[in-house]
Amino acid sequence: MVKTKKLVIIGDSAFAEVAYEYFTHDSEYEVIGFAVESAYLKKSELFGLPIVPFEQIEENFKPSEVEFYAALVYSQLNRLRTRLYQAAKSKGYRPASYISSRAFVWNNVQLGEHCFIFEDNTIQPFVKIGNNVVLWSGNHIGHHSVVQDNCFIASQVVISGFCNIGRNTFMGVNSTMSNNVSIGEDNWIGIGVTIVRNTEVNQLFKGEQPEPAKISALRFFKVKE
Question: Are 102 and 200 found together in one domain?
């Protein structure tokens, strides 16, 4: 893919490494460096590219020439990613988005800025996605649904039609929402949780691990030790 834009990634964690791979091999962006807040700066380069203190980012990358993506996950219920996204914008940098070439995004979907949409996402007609949203791989976002700003949707999540996901919400792997359900702001929806009615602001729904059976796996499958 022809590279027509330059990008600096904020962060040097695992997500930053993943973002580098996707932007490099499946976008028009050329990644030219990384930035990390000085208190957390532990190394000087990644993938042969410089890592600079975020506080001095303008001295290394001109806002007029470079866009940014803040590659942070859901730390502090998405507050960390949101803070750095807003801080970079306040310095005059334009936010970049990544949309996988292997994602299905219907042509009338409204997509905000600074989003990261992985492969195998299905985003149906009339969906609205806010700013600073991460959709990890393999999710279904049903028609007429809204995912508000700063949300993080993990893999294999099903959001049915006419749903509304409140700001800053995290939805864990294999969680599911029924039709016409609204999730309040600042909700944590755990792994495998099914939501069938509206939730309030600032609620946490745990994904519970089942108790192991009384019989062992080796005995059940008649494996001789």
Answer: yes
> In which domain, by residue range, is 9 found?
5-96
% of the chain with per-residue pLDDT over 70:
100
Contact (Cβ atoms closer than 8 angstroms) between residue 144 and residue 164: no
- Is the CB of residue 47 less than 8 Å from the CB of residue 20? yes
pLDDT tens sequence across 76-104? 999 999 999 999 999 999 999 999 999 99
Which residues are within 8 A (CB) of 133 and not within 5 positions of it... i.e. 6 or more apart?
A: 112, 115, 116, 147, 149, 150, 151, 152, 153
Q: Left, alpha or beta for 202 (phi > 0: left; psi -120 to 50: alpha)?
A: left
Query: Is 130 found in the same domain as 69?
Result: no
User: What's the predicted TM-score (pTM) here?
Assistant: 0.95
Q: Give the span between the Cα atoms of 34 and 159, in whole angstroms.
A: 33
Q: How many structural domains does the chain have?
A: 2
Q: In this structure, is residue 105 part of a structural domain?
A: yes
pLDDT tens track for 125-160:
999 999 999 999 999 999 999 999 999 999 999 999
CA-CA distance, 17 to 6, in Å (whole number)?
17
Long-range CB pairs of 45-50 (<8 Å, 24+ gap) are 46/12, 46/16, 46/17, 46/20, 47/17, 47/20
For 153, the 3-state DSSP assignment is strand
